[in-house]
Design goal:
heterodimer, A: alpha+beta, seven-stranded antiparallel beta sheet, five-stranded mixed beta sheet, 10 helices, 14 strands, elongated, B: alpha+beta, four-stranded antiparallel beta sheet, 6 helices, 4 strands, globular
């Protein structure tokens, strides 16, 4: 027994009761702690669950974003409409977890079997299966003229065709390609329920696809239009070449009278020379007979008698004249040949290739042609030097320009005058001046100088195309044209050609 | 206030004055929790103040002395339960700077709702550090004690005082730590 204390309890009892209370508190504390631990565990479990569902949700969202990203990448790529549809089927089928799918193009509401006959399936490969596609198309409202506003879903459960066994849904959409054609994308799903959210994502992708298809169709139209424009340009180019050639032939026509005259001259003197030569030939035949007669009559032929016959017939003169006549004929024929040759070069259509061209030679060649229409009162003063700078040009075309200018000058100087051709070299160009002392032009004529079909020549003489064609040729050569003219004083054409900087 | 403070205060009182004294305190305090404390629980601040007040009366010491003594004792207890990351500190000043950036961050990880004091550093030299102790609990003396316990841990000799104290008519509590 312990001594009782003031409170009636012995120290030991008191100690025991203190410890008992302490143990009681510890027990309760432990229970509390355990309860709290349980609460924590529950909270952790719930947190875990919510984290897992968040993770699943974000994975789903990630899948959706990946799908949309890939689908958009295909849409913005440069693949054709068919490829775009094919790739969209693969991507969308995979995302939508469809069993199979395909795309077709219909014409006037009819399935065109030869175009696409491959079926995508969930193992992500494509296999030919026309029968399935044909049967699946039979389920579609192919007669639909306007495209749908969204994906359409139709249940397949009541469909008893063996080929669709296991499929629960047909999901499809269409896109208008042109007046007659429509593209369709179709999927088959075996899922019990279609995820509404996935359908929204599909809807977003559809929007991208619509704009992608539209862009491609616009591109195709632009390409078609570009080809048409190119064809038109080619036609115009051809027409231009024809006009160029026609104009050349027309100016040849104008030149014809002059050419005839030029050719006539040598022919006239060749003809008269030939008559004289005929006479000389008769003289020689006569002399031949005389000599034969003398020898046959046994009169004997002495040098003296032969010389007497030669003197009588003026053989020395005939001999020297024959040489002159033949030489003159040769010259005449050479002249005719030259004229014909020039005409041939000029009338030749040629090409449009530019090469290093000497304008001096060009002017010379032009003069040779144009000279045929020059009157004898017209003086030509060609001051161009063969050493003049070289330009990039087409010899035939530039010759045509000069012929045209020279013929016009001659026309303006029908009462005679001087046609002078001179040059002014500058740092980067060579200016050729073609000046006449003809009747000149007033301002009205000057303004219409290069207008096609404008002419001051009488009907039937000019085509009115000469200067406009010349202008086009000069423009193609990068040459500038400037005209000075005074009525009653004359006209000067200043043609400025860019010169080639030859490598030192 | 977090249960660990009550559990440690319980241990401290029992270590100083025995089980019976603690039992006596609880008997008189008539606390809502009945003194059943777990480290993971949270209890009303007032319970700690009530218990401290009773110690002050019964042992005839000042509240300041009681708080400092408890703070100094409790440092190593809290330090031992802290994560390993905070065990690298060798200097009192370094540790005080790290309180907000490291220790309180760790505390918040386990107890997101914990109400923690803030230190606003006012001046510092090689041997002197002064900071404003900010806490609605106004346990500045307890804080002084903890700093002393910290110095004991780092093996540094320091003097802790308050230039201003709200318990002594000041606008704020400015704790001064001086290395000796």
């Amino acid at each position: 027994m312990t001594e009782p204390t003031n409170s009636g309890l012995s120290p030991l009892d008191k100690k025991i009761s203190v410890l008992e209370r302490k143990v009681e508190r510890e027990k309760k504390a432990r229970k509390m702690a355990e309860r709290q631990l349980e609460d924590y565990s529950l909270k952790i479990y719930e947190t875990n669950r919510s984290l897992q569902s968040s993770l699943a949700l974000s994975r789903k969202k990630q899948g959706e974003l990946e799908y949309l990203g890939e689908a958009s990448a295909v849409v913005v790529s440069e693949v054709s409409v068919i490829e775009l549809l094919t790739k969209t089927v693969s991507l969308t089928g995979h995302f939508f977890e469809a069993e199979c799918g395909f795309s077709v193009i219909t014409k006037n509401g009819q399935f065109v079997a030869s175009q696409q006959n491959e079926l995508w399936n969930k193992d992500n490969d494509w296999q030919a299966n026309v029968e399935f596609i044909q049967k699946a198309c039979d389920l579609l409202p192919l007669g639909q003229v306007e495209p749908f506003d969204s994906w359409l879903v139709s249940p397949l459960e009541s469909n008893e065709q063996q080929i669709f066994k296991g499929f629960k849904w047909q999901v499809y959409v269409n896109f208008k390609l042109n007046k007659d054609s429509m593209a369709w994308i179709v999927f088959f799903s075996a899922q019990d329920y279609l995820d509404e959210e996935s359908l929204y994502v599909l809807e977003t992708a559809r929007g991208h696809l619509v704009s992608g298809i539209r862009r491609r169709l616009t591109d195709a139209r632009i390409i078609k239009r570009t080809i048409e424009l190119q064809d038109t340009v080619n036609d115009l180019e051809r027409a231009k070449r024809q006009i160029l050639q026609s104009e050349k032939m027309a100016s040849l026509g104008q030149l014809a009278a002059g050419v005839a005259h030029e050719i006539n001259n040598p022919i006239a003197f060749i003809s008269s020379n030939t008559q004289v030569l005929n006479q000389y030939f008769a003289d020689y035949q006569q002399m031949h007979q005389k000599l034969e007669h003398m020898l046959s009559n046994d009169q004997g032929l002495s040098l003296l008698s032969y010389q007497a016959i030669c003197t009588e017939m003026d053989i020395d003169y005939i001999n020297s004249d024959i040489v002159d006549l033949l030489s003159s004929n040769t010259d005449g024929l050479t002249r005719v040949k030259e004229i014909v040759d020039n005409m041939k070069t000029f009338s030749h259509a040629g090409n449009e290739i530019l090469s290093e061209t000497c304008l001096c030679d060009c002017v010379e060649a032009g003069l040779k042609i144009a000279r045929n229409v020059f009157t004898c009162e017209l003086t030509v003063d060609n001051q161009l030097l063969p050493s003049c700078p070289v330009v990039m040009g087409n010899f035939g075309q530039l010759q045509q320009v000069f012929v045209n200018l020279f013929v016009n000058a001659a026309y303006a100087m029908d009462e005679g005058g001087t046609l002078s051709i001179s040059q002014t070299p500058t740092a980067d160009s060579l200016i050729i001046h073609v000046a006449d002392t003809g009747r000149g032009m007033d301002e009205k004529t000057l303004n219409q100088l290069f207008t096609p079909f404008f002419t001051t020549k009488p009907v039937g003489v000019g085509t009115g195309l000469g200067l406009s064609v010349s202008y086009a040729i000069l423009e193609a050569h990068g040459a500038k044209v400037q005209v000075d003219s005074r009525v009653g004083e004359g006209t000067t054409f200043n043609l400025s050609f860019p010169i080639i900087q030859l490598q030192p | 206030m977090k249960g660990i403070v009550f559990v440690k205060f319980n241990e401290f009182v029992e270590q100083c004055w025995g089980d019976e004294f603690w039992d006596e305190l609880l008997e008189e305090a008539q606390l809502a929790s009945q003194g059943i404390y777990t480290t993971i629980g949270t209890y009303a601040d007032q319970e700690l103040f009530t218990l401290i007040d009773l110690v002050v009366i019964k042992k005839n010491i000042s509240s300041k002395q009681a708080q400092i003594a408890f703070g100094e004792w409790v440092f190593k207890e809290l330090y031992n339960v802290a994560p390993n990351d905070v065990h690298d500190f060798k200097d009192v000043f370094e540790f005080l700077h790290a309180v907000q950036n490291v220790i309180h961050v760790e505390v918040k990880k386990l107890n997101p709702d914990a109400l923690l004091p803030e230190f606003e550093f006012l001046s510092e030299s090689a041997t002197h550090l002064s900071f404003n102790y900010l806490s609605p609990r106004q346990l500045c003396f307890f804080c002084e004690g903890i700093v002393l316990g910290l110095a004991k841990h780092t093996g540094q000799e320091i003097k802790v005082s308050q230039a201003e104290c709200q318990h002594e008519g000041g606008q704020r509590c400015v704790i001064e730590v001086e290395k000796l």
